[in-house]
Amino acid sequence: MMEVESSKLSQLLGANADVRSVSDYLSLFQTFFDTSLDNIAVYGLAGQLVYANAALRNALNLKKDTGADYVDIKSQEAFDQYYDALNRTISSGEPRAVLINFEHASLSRVIYDLVHFSAIKNQQNQVVGVIAVGRDLDFNKQQKNQETVQREQYLRALMDTFPFIVWMKDKSGRFMATNRKFVEVVGAKHYEDLEGKTDFDFFPTEMAQGYACDDEEILKTGVPKSFNEQIKKETGEIYWAETYKSPVQLDGQVIGTVGFARDISEKQHLVSEVTKQRNAYQSLVQNLPTTIIRYDLDGKRIFVNSRCFETYNIEVPYELNKTPLEWWSPYIVNVTGAEFMTQLMEVMQFNVQKTLEIHSMHEDKVAVHQLRIVPEFDEVHQVCGALTIATDITEVAEYRRKIESMAFHDQLTGLPNRTLFSQQLSVAIDQAKTNNSQFALIILDLDQFKSINDTMGHAIGDKLLIEVARRITNSLDQHCTCARLGGDEFIILVESVPSREHVEYVSNVLLNQIMQVYVIDGSEYFISASIGIAYFPDDSEDMDDLLKYADSAMYHAKKGGRNRYHTYSPAITESIQHRLNVETELRRAIENDEIYLEYQPIVDMTSNQVKGLESLCRWHSRKLGIVSPMVFIQIAEETGMIVELGQWIMREAFKAARLLNAQLKHPVSVSVNLSARQFFEVDLIHQVRHLLKEQQCNPAWIKFEITESLLLESNQSVLNALNAFNDLGIKVSLDDFGTGQSALAYLSKFPIHQVKIDYSFVKEITSNPNDALLVKAIIALTATLNKELIAEGVETSAQATLLQSYGCRYAQGYLYSKPISLQAVQQYLELREA
Ligand SMILES: Nc1nc2c(ncn2[C@@H]2O[C@H](COP(=O)(O)OP(=O)(O)OP(=O)(O)O)[C@@H](O)[C@H]2O)c(=O)[nH]1
């Protein structure tokens, strides 16, 4: 066929062509034509197909021997188009290009060819044929399609491996494209299932509505948007997604929206966990009853919990990013910002912890906080700041203050107590030494306060003490400090003493104030005080000595009659020293056999007969000589030695009573003085019984003398003892009658047989009509009560006569006999008996 066609072609190319060169050309053209991808056909002037290249033959499936002379065009329209163009080129010689839609019967596809018809002209420029070059556009497209498909596949692979869900929607919200993840999320099978559908087809209405709103907004604004939102999976699972949505443009036109969403549930979970933890931590930190402030390395506050504002009653907010130097709470009164800054920096510099006490004052209220400053560390354990944690210890501090106050103050009067006063006194001594000044120490002790307590009760006593404290404090100026030493004893430090007269003036003011009437619970009371004064440095520079000296002076004031002041002098120390010596010697007096008894006869004035004897204790000290009973009995009373002494006296007196009465026809009684202490400090009844037995003494020979003060106690044990004596047959005599309250009620209430009129009344009986009247009245009264009466201290016969005339039968005194020894008594009685 090649030869046939090439001969036809050579015919077309001209008869006079050089054969050799023509054949060369033909070979060249044939090679070119047959390797061309374009379909090439050559037509003669009659429109007959002269030549078809390999591509065309292949396209039209032309067999070599079919002899087809036209292009097999199925569609009439295309056929007409083709041949019209061919014929026009033949007739005009003008080239022409036509796009023709071939639908070849043997091919399953439609072929679009762009066919170029060009005239073949000879040397004379005459058209001899037409060459038609058709380019299979469909082939090109196919090739292009292949590339596009591949590119699409790449894109899809890219989209599907993207860890996001991806979608593209048109302006009305219809899905145009999605990735596999999106398909999965909505539970579809294929991409195609989503085409033309909207969010409303896959998501709950509310959610879809939200998505639509977002899309609308993006389309409207043209601005991309990214946010976190919730997406519901087809499985019902709702998860958090981080979404990015943007408008999509094509050829400068917004055609819809595109979106990417990433599942951030895990991240969100983590974030919400962290948030939860942070909230919990914050709630803890904010609600802790402690104030927390965090500082950076420069000392700037970087965190302050809300407690800081409540505490310290602070309205001014703590200023963040400022150091304590730059801002410091105006309410903190005990630490300055600079001081605190120093502490803070030390904590961070030396990696130590510190504890401070912060006092803040607001509206007269002081809040106390215990503040700990601790360093804070970073991940590599370097100090990166500091934390202060303050706990409110106001209540604790208040308790501490109260405890301290209790330790240093008297609870009843609120005055400083001995401990605090000692400190104040010590300071005063130091200052006075430095300033070369003097001060006075005043000790004030209430007189007979015990009797107030005893008669009016402790509660009244307390109220009185409170009032006394108030009066003392009010009487003093700012240079004086007052304290209660205990009991009814107060002490006053008078500093800046211009003169002793000033101190004496102060003492008189105090005595005067204390003497004023006290109205307590509607009743009136009177009391006085005794004051002792000692001076620094004149009397001593030593605190203990000063206290001792003021006390000694006060004791002297008491001894001097009370309700007065006494200034210390060395003579007082001497007398005290003497008393101390007496006391020391007295302790050994019994065992040293220095104590003995004397007996003073009690006489029946009518017959001059000795009716009884009063035993009187005497002491002849080897060291001190004769010591007056007035002195040593009082010391024995004060020191409690009277109990031992009293027992010794009883034993001696009982022995004497036995000895005397053993030989007498008319028995005499021996009186023994009993001290109140014996009633209270020993089992007196038992002791008496024991001694009576021991000394084989008849109780009828014994009389006990007691004083009114014992009866004042109104004590049941006293009554029991007196009743017991009565039961034993021991008579009781009331001594010193007239000197105390002389309440006749005692005489009927207690088993008392005898009353002794005190010698002080008897002494003046002949010269003082009042005393005479008094004695007369007492005698009459005791007679009425059927009590025996003895007049003490009868020294003259005039007194004796008068007493007798009043009806007094018994007397005791120098008129009859001084106290004498047992031996002398024995002789005296023997004489009488004889
Ligand atoms: N009501 C009351 N009495 C107290 C208190 N403390 C001590 N007393 C009593 O105060 C009295 C002190 O008595 P003293 O100072 O020893 O003796 P006084 O009766 O005052 O006699 P003189 O001091 O010698 O004048 C005692 O009876 C104590 O029991 C107290 O707090 N309240």
From TrEMBL:
CDD domains: EAL, GGDEF, PAS. It comes from Methylotenera mobilis (strain JLW8 / ATCC BAA-1282 / DSM 17540). Residues 437-570 form the GGDEF domain. Residues 579-833 form the EAL domain. Residues 225-276 form the PAC domain. GO terms for molecular function: catalytic activity. This is Diguanylate cyclase/phosphodiesterase with PAS/PAC sensor(S).
